[in-house]
Amino acid sequence: MFSPGHAGANAYARVGNETGVMGASPHRLIAMLFQGARKAIGQARFHLQQGEVGRRGETIGKAISIIESGLQASLDRNAGGEIAERLNALYGYMARRLLEANIKSNEAMLIEVDGLLATLEEAWTGIGPEVARIAAQGSAEAAR
């Protein structure tokens, strides 16, 4: 469903989030992208509440960048099939809602996108043990 490359890592680094990206597994990179996007949305909500229009726009732009250049760009639509196609559409929707939230100064739209990301992040975290098991099994087979 997600491409094995580090496109997400590059997007995450470009938007100024914490280091440690290069040594992370592909599964961990996606988790970091969810966290980064949600953090940016939280900051955008704060700036919206404080009336800081410029900073709100910057942080919403950061969230959009993480979604489009990280999460959406990491999808492997060939291997991921229908799930990847649906995620692609959902990420596009989220980016549009964030843009609309910025234009309309609408906190409810920010909360909506954060909720969608939280749901996806929870599901992604939930498959972590299975991903680790498969990776360990693959490593063991490769060592033989």
UniProtKB/TrEMBL annotation:
Keyword Cytoplasm belongs to the record: yes
InterPro entries xref list: FliS, FliS_sf
GO biological process, one term: bacterial-type flagellum-dependent cell motility
Pfam families: FliS
Superkingdom, natural source: Bacteria
Alphabetical list of PANTHER family matching this protein: FLAGELLAR SECRETION CHAPERONE FLIS
Protein name per Swiss-Prot or TrEMBL: Flagellar secretion chaperone FliS
Gene that produces this protein: fliS
